[in-house]
């Protein structure tokens, strides 16, 4: 195969050739630049939007299953929702999910939940409601789990009949069938997400 000598081309062809090379080089540099901080910030914003959208959908599902929980949620100082907690490591028996803390209709922080105490469970949504300012202020890593946790008791129609105001932290777990009466929270831990 013969290699064409660019210098042998007429001057107009050489300008066109070098113009194309320059355009290609600039476009390549622009693409390399897109994989840096700008695209990382975009993917972080996109991840926040996904979590926030799933947060809202999970609360709506909760309110359909148990309408009176919405009244309790309106009294909460902050709500943390992990829309989907799934099995991440079948060997170690771990599950994980990502969620957000919302205070006064503003998303304040994002967290990852790791669960080692309930490895056999299927996909679930975990909802934690801080019912006091003290519970909200202690929300830093595992400090939340030191608070007394209450789970509401619901009747067949989804009405809250007990357990909603007996602790600073209210925990609900939703699976495909509805709200679990006795969720296992002992193996759960939280870590902030940098997004």
Largest sheet features: 8 strands, mixed
| Helix content percent band | 25-40%
Q: What is the first-to-last residue Cα distance?
A: 53 Å
| SS content category | alpha+beta
Runs in which pLDDT lies below 50 for 5 or more consecutive residues are: 29-37
Number of strands: 10
Seen as an oligomer or otherwise, the chain set is single chain
Determine the strand fraction and express it as a percent band: 25-35%
Following the backbone from N to C, one meets helices and strands in this order, namely HHHEEEEHEEEEEE
Rg calc = 26 Å
Describe what this molecule looks like in 3D.
A hairpin with a 5-residue loop joins strand 6 (153-154) and strand 7 (160-162). The chain has 195 residues and is α+β, with helices and mostly antiparallel strands. The chain has helices at residues 11-34, 37-65, 69-75, 133-137; strands at residues 78-89, 94-103, 106-115, 124-130, 149-150, 153-154, 160-162, 169-175, 178-179, 188-192. Helices cover 33% and strands 31% of the residues. Strands 1, 2, 3, 4, 5, 8, 9 and 10 form an 8-stranded mixed sheet that branches. The model is unreliable at 29-37 (pLDDT under 50).
Secondary-structure blueprint:
Layout (H helix, E strand, L loop, with lengths): L10 H24 L2 H29 L3 H7 L2 E12 L4 E10 L2 E10 L8 E7 L2 H5 L11 E2 L2 E2 L5 E3 L6 E7 L2 E2 L8 E5 L3
Parallel strand pairs: 5-8
Antiparallel strand pairs: 1-2, 1-4, 2-3, 3-10, 4-8, 6-7, 8-9
């Amino acid at each position: 195969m013969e290699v064409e000598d660019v210098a042998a081309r007429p001057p107009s062809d050489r300008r066109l050739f070098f113009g194309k090379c320059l355009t290609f080089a600039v476009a390549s540099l622009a693409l390399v630049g897109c994989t840096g901080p700008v695209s990382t910030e975009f993917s972080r914003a996109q991840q926040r939007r996904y979590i926030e959208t799933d947060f809202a959908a999970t609360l709506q599902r909760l309110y359909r299953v148990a309408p009176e929980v919405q009244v309790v949620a309106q009294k909460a100082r902050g709500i943390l929702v992990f829309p989907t907690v799934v099995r991440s490591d079948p060997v170690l028996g771990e599950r994980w999910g990502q969620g957000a803390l919302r205070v006064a209709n503003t998303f304040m922080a994002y967290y990852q939940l790791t669960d080692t105490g309930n490895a056999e469970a299927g996909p679930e949504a975990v909802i934690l409601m801080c019912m006091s300012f003290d519970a909200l202020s202690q929300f830093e890593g595992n400090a939340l789990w030191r608070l007394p946790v209450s789970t509401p008791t619901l009747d067949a129609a989804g009405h809250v009949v007990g357990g909603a105001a007996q602790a600073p932290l209210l925990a609900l777990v939703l699976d495909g069938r509805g709200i679990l009466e006795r969720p296992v929270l002992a193996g759960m831990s939280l870590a902030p997400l940098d997004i």
